[in-house]
Design brief:
The complex is a heterodimer of chains A (303) and B (401). By secondary structure, chain A is mostly helical. Helices cover 74% and strands 0% of the residues of chain A. Chain B is globular. Classes of the chains: A mainly alpha (303), B alpha+beta (401).
Chain lengths: 303, 401
Amino acid sequence: MKLLFEFIVFPGFVFTAVFGMLVSWIDRKVTARIQWRQGPPFLQPYYDFQKLLIKETTIPETANTFTFLLSPLVAIISTTIVSLILWKTIFNPQSLFVGDLIVVIYLLAITPIAVILGASSSGNPIASLAASREMKLFMSYELPFILSIIVPIIKLHTIRLGDIILYQQTSGMVINSISGIIAFAVFLIAIQAKLGLVPFDMAEAETEIAGGVFIEYSGMPLALHKLNRIMLLFIIPIFAIILFLGGMYPLYIGLLKYLVILVIIILIRNTNPRVRIDQAIKFFWRSCMILSVLALILAMIGK
Amino acid sequence: MTDKNKKRTIIPIGPYHPLQEEAEFFKLYVEGEKVVDMDIEIGYMHRGIEKLSESMHYDQSAFLVERICGICSNSHPFAYVNAVEDLAGFEISIRAKYIRSVIGELERLHSHLLWLGLAGHFIGYNTVWMWSWKYRELVNDIFEFITGNRQHYGMMKIGGVRRDIENKDIPQIEKMCDNLIPVLNMFKGAVMDDPVIHARTKNVGILPKNVAIDYCVVGPTARASGIDIDVRRDDPYAAYNLVDWKVIVGKNGDVFDKAAIRILEMFESIKIIRGCLNGLKKEPEGNFDLKVKEIPVGEGIGRHEAPRGEVFHYVKSDKTNRPARHKIRAPSYVNIASNKYAVIGQTISDAALILAAVDPCYCCTERVTVIDKRKNKILMNGFDLIKLSQEKTEKLRKKHA
């Protein structure tokens, strides 16, 4: 019963969704102010979600209905579990099992896979093109992403999130070293792709392929997909704080760290055009790879 | 490997697509991400302006052709009044010439800023989009100050212009133009020095010079490919030979050159506006309209370098107060066709940008298509339509013989 409450209300689905909407509002508002626009009202992310819920759900004739509808559900469940693990770790670092970091990495990989599944099952040529882009993108950013996560593991000799937080509180944050800074930078760029934001939003790219992976989604499943993106936007900076910046405590410092990461994400998003998929792959497999391997070597020799 | 056509997928861009403000259909045949062929289908928004113009009198037609395009709303009336004046042999006053050029160049400024914003939007750079449209408002403010309107100015009139620019207003207009220069410098820096924009636009959608000549492209699209054409210089009209300016010519013909040429052209436009305003100060006020009462029999052509290239109007008159024939050729009509060459071999991401790089204006481009609605089949091909038009010309010739 307690677990169910934790999963559904706090710190699971409802908590993540509500705060995700808040973060999404900040994102949209800051973006709007950068672009000399007024920006949406505070409740706009909620209005969007609510409106999508009452819209009709159309399933294309060519689609595999089961996979098509399952995909947003799988994505949102995995994201919720990630949120659950991260927040439980923050509140009580000793409460979880050894290796939860590995679980989080796997669960974060489920979202793109679910999106690819949903897009390819819709039977739309544009969606299949977008799915192939998402797949290439996923394969290109995942390796630098994981390599950058290995840096704190090497430095702190643990694969348990709670221990990562605790060790950082005693021996200083991971980012206080050269390898930590490099790994953090690679991590930030990789999450830009993971969140599907400009410059790596080519799987959605509305001006090229009209929404891409979500082109056939409508109503409730689309609402869930959008909500999943919003929740990820809320969670991933927290993941970064745990790995590199030593957790959320004390809370006001934690909040400050969170806002800094969020603003960096928003700024990257607003000061870059979308790159092509081949350019993205080259970028991740050359520059980011070299940087993250460099960070790994530096971490091994203790810098 | 066995069957080439089996691997092809059709990616439709249009008839309704976020890339376009208007309806147009680009059918991309792709293999993976690579575009191997493209079909262009036009005719979704044909409004029969030429036919409508024949039912209106000369002064009304100037307003009608202004509605062909919302963005270059001054270009069509400009070319139209040039055509009618060529037909009748009017020589307008120098003051009217200066005012026409000021309006024409202001329009180029706002149109290029609008394109820059859209191009930013198409490559996902929404900040450029919003900023460029914000600063486009400054140009619209100048328009409002001069003409009272922000978009459809209604300034062109056979025999002159409809409103004067009073000498006491000129310092204010000059000040407003000065405010634009830092903005343009900012965009020049933001677009031409950004490495990611370079990566997205350089060597993308190249239209070589010889191909550009074959496709008869005009305007910035041609100048980016290294063709040195500009109606303003080659066939001077209005005040373009009275002020000092130069034609910007690129050499690569890629998307980057097209953007760079448009940005540099905006500086030239401001130069022209400044020159015209200086000229206006020396001309007597109030002498801006010939007050034309009658159009003689004859035929004339008018050309104007619109922001997108040369727009061409042909007007034939009989003794009535209406044009007997009014033929319009807009620049996008030739520019859009060149997409077919530029897009093939590129990826879909680039294709979207290349299609937008010629600054297409679909409403100008539309031609009639005759289709059977029930069978969804095109009834008349190009040759049938040419035959129809030849028959009509023959009929007109007999009528006026």
